[in-house]
Write a structure and sequence with these properties.
- This protein is of the alpha+beta class.
- The protein has a domain of 48 residues.
- The chain has three helices and four strands.
- The chain has a two-stranded antiparallel ribbon with strand order 1-2. A two-stranded antiparallel sheet has the order 3-4.
- The radius of gyration is 21 Å and the shape is elongated.
- The relative contact order is 0.23.
Length: 100
């Protein structure tokens, strides 16, 4: 029987022993925007020119643009970090403040 490869938690960096429980994850963030500008406020040409200016003033590196639209990570986390991730991604309970 082959020995399992060593695993390291991507959140805390701790080595996870082969006998320990660990969690695989895939996280995908995809940027979306339903409306560019309220309709009727300006002509289509002006809206397009404004969008082009924003694109030209944006980051130089195309990878930064790509990550604003699609960001994906996979990995392994330990049980302690799983609890933190679950709390972070859980919907807020009533009475909790907005994280932003």
């Amino acid at each position: 029987m082959a020995t399992p490869s060593p695993k390291t938690c991507v959140a805390c960096g701790r080595h996870i022993a082969p006998s320990e429980l660990y969690y695989r994850f895939t996280l995908v963030l995809q940027g979306e925007q339903d409306v560019l500008e309220p309709s009727g406020s300006s002509g289509t040409g002006e809206e397009l020119a404004s969008l082009m200016r924003k694109l030209e003033e944006g980051p130089e590196d195309p990878r930064e643009w790509e990550e604003q639209v699609h960001w994906e990570r996979t990995g392994v986390i330990c049980a302690a970090c799983r609890a933190v991730v679950m709390r972070t991604l859980a919907p807020p309970s009533s009475g909790e403040t907005d994280p932003h």
